[in-house]
Structures are given as structure tokens and as C-alpha cells.
Amino acid sequence: MPIYSSNQKQIAEQISATDVNQTHWRDWRWQLKHSIQSIEAVEELLGFTFEPKERKKLELTLKRFPLSITPYYLSLIDPDNLRNDPIFRQAFPSPKEIEIERHDMSDPLSEDKDSPVPGVLTHRYPDRVLLHVSNVCAMYCRHCTRKRKVGDRDSIPGKADLLKGIEYIRNTPVVRDVLLSGGDPLMLNDDYLDWLLTELRAIPHVQVIRIGTRMPVVLPYRVTPKLVTMLKKHHPLWINTHFNHPREMTASAKEALQQLADAGIPLGNQSVLLAGVNDCPRIMKTLMHKLVMNRVRPYYIYQCDLAEGLSHFRTPVGKGVEIMESLRGHTSGFAVPTYVIDAPGGGGKIPMNPNYLVSLSTKKVVLRNYEGVITTYQEPENYKEIFCERKCDDCRLHLHLDGAEECRSTGIEMLLSDSDATISLTPEDNHRLERRHD
């Protein structure tokens, strides 16, 4: 698909009252201004009409969970196979969203309960926090685990709110990793995001900053040279994005990813396992291959959360394990993500992998590989176990954990060095020094 296809040109002309061209289409602000937010607009642009009964159900759905699709993402939908199209299913509402099942929860991960700065920051894991910087996205994904907050413009964190979160991080030295999330952090303008990253980077114990964004998928034009230049100032900076299907890896998406990767930003991807979208080993393997071809490391495949309105997207856990069986050993190790369930109630991510351990004793481990081959691994016979009692000063392991010195000065160079306290070099058999010890 070209950067500006005839289909995209047609959509642009339909939604804009003025003349449009490729420059308009590739302007992320133009895309946001012309986001599709009604059933009527979708019908007009896709040439499809819903039956009155279904339309009524869709209108009820939108009263609870709003609709917003970028023209770019809408242009990826195949109108000839609308009901089964993975783009359509992720972007357009289903009446099933208002069928709340008994196990569904408004806040399935208890993010609000684990929030020492309400509405701004979640601190669940010991050394990392999630900073909520926005409640709005370029597109409202139908499978969003934070559906309770989507589009809530009345409670978007302001600068004063974010400063409270930053102060918490500053006063909590154990925090070494800060994840910016939302909503989508790249909905913030460049200057505001620059300010936020600068504040975080000024905290000595913050080692890594991460941004979670779906912009490369739903609005790749947001990744501009100006944005990338700004982000480069704040290394080490990581970005995780959210591709769910191979068809989302368009020429525009690849261009956005290339800009980020060329800026030295490590890229990861977090997919969600979605019924009717990607619950297929072939689809998932193809997606992983397309990701690594574009320098994106597959990070997680999430089991769909127990959020309200997502029951029609959830698959059995066995489907996820089946997909992992099709990946491990069958493709490159770095193309294999970790399949996880984000535990309801805030328990964190729990890996769900096929079982490769068959049995074990004190001397042997019995294993099976991806082909079903059963093999053994001999345990060491002379291993001296270290019983850790947290008495690090008495430990025989090498616990000097700073990077080793690559160069040590010697001789006259050492005497000239300001970094070495040595003031003289004396031969070992110096008689004067020997008399001092007599």
C-alpha cells in the first residue's frame, strides 16, 4: 500500500470541506481534527449501511464507550470483508461491549487502588511506576483495558497533577524505571512532552524512561523529525508500541518505526490476544516476523483483561499457549514474546508458557523440546551451593557491580594522572625502606 493511496485520497476528500492533498493527509493534527466519531460517518466513508436494529444497539454502545478513528486507520479497513476485518473489529464498536459479564471489572488491574497519587501514578512493582499523562488517544481501541477512562476529558491530568507524580518519584529512591502511559503520551505536544521528560531525567535514581504509545499503528504521522529530535535528548528512552495484526504494518508505520529506531530508541511491541483478530498461530508468527524486520522486539502477548465490555474479545488461555508452541523453536528466539496474564486485582504479569519441564530429581532434569523430543540434562555433581542470608559482606561472590576498569595507568603515566593518589614509585629492594621495617 503506498503512503497516500487512491482510497486514502478518496476518504480525505469526503471528510474535508476544503481541497486536500498528501501534505494534509500526513499532518497528524489534520488527522486528529478529522477523526471519525459517528456511525453515520463510518457508513458514508465505507459505503456500508447498518440495519436499524443493529444501529440502535450501536448507538447505545456509543453512549457508554465513545468512538474515535483516525482517517488513516479507517483507510486500512477492507470494506468488502467488513465483519471479519481485524482493523474494523479493533476500531468500530460492537453491541457486545455493553454485555457485562459477572466476572468483568471496571478496573481489573486495580490501578486506582495502587495509586499513591490518585489519577496520576500507579506504583505496583517495587522499582517502577506508571505515570498516567493523558486520558485521550488518537483512536479508541475497542479492547482497551482502561475503557473506564477513555475520552474522559474532564479528568485529564494537568501540569500540577503531573508535578505531584514527579515529586512522588523524586521522593521514592527505589524507583528506577518510569513508564509514561495514558491514554497516549504522544497526544501531548512536543514541548510539553519535552518538559515532562526533562523533569524525570533530572531525578538521579531514574535510570530508564519508557513511553507506551499506539501512534505508529493508528497515526504514524505523529512521528515527525521534530518529535524524534526531541526524544533523542532523553536517552536512555524506550518505546513500546501495540501492533496486533500484520495488516497494521503499512508503509507509513514502517517509516515511523524507522525514524524511531534510527534515533537509537529501543522499540518493543505489546500485542493483545483478541478473538477474531489475531487468535491464530499463523497470524501471530507473521506479525512477529514483520516486527523484527522493522527493528521492533516482540515484548508481550497479553491475555485480554477482564475489563467491562471485552468478553467478546477474550480467548481461552489454551489458545495463547497454542500460539506460543508455534513460536518457540519454530522461529528466532528474539521474535518470541512472553505470553502473560495481567493478574486481576493488581497481581502483576504472570507468564503463561508451554511446559517444557517433564520431571526432575536431584541429579537429572527431564525436558522436552519444541519437536516433542524428550531429553535429559545432568545436574552438576560438585556444585557448592550458596545459601544467601543477605549478608553480602561475607559473600564469596564478586559483588563489586560497577563496570570493570578497562584501563589502569602505570609508571610515569600513573604519577601524572589526577585520578590516582600515588605520589612515588619505589623499587622493591630499596634499602632505605627495608631499614624502616627492621
SSE inventory with pairings:
Blueprint: H1 6-15, H2 22-25, H3 28-33, H4 39-46, H5 52-64, H6 71-74, H7 86-91, E1 121-122, E2 128-132, H8 159-170, E3 177-181, H9 190-201, E4 208-212, H10 215-218, H11 225-232, E5 237-241, H12 251-262, E6 267-273, H13 281-293, E7 296-303, H14 317-327, E8 338-343, E9 348-351, E10 357-360, E11 364-368, E12 374-378, H15 411-416, H16 431-436
Parallel strand pairs: 2-3, 3-4, 4-5, 5-6, 6-7, 7-8
Antiparallel strand pairs: 1-2, 8-9, 10-11, 11-12
Order the strands across the largest sheet as they lie in space: 1-2-3-4-5-6-7-8-9
- Total helices: the number is 16
Percentage of β-strand residues? 5-15%
Poorly predicted runs are none
CATH class category of the largest domain: Alpha Beta
CATH superfamily of the largest domain: Aldolase class I
Broad structural category: alpha/beta
Question: How confident is the prediction overall: mean pLDDT?
Answer: 91
CATH topology of the largest domain: TIM Barrel
The succession of helices and strands, N to C, reads: HHHHHHHEEHEHEHHEHEHEHEEEEEHH
Please provide the count of β strands.
Answer: 12
- What profile does the largest beta sheet have? 9 strands, mixed
- Counting structural domains, the number is 2
Helix content: 25-40%
Annotated CATH architecture of the largest domain: Alpha-Beta Barrel
Query: Which outline best applies?
Result: globular
Question: Radius of gyration in whole Å, from Cα?
Answer: 27 Å
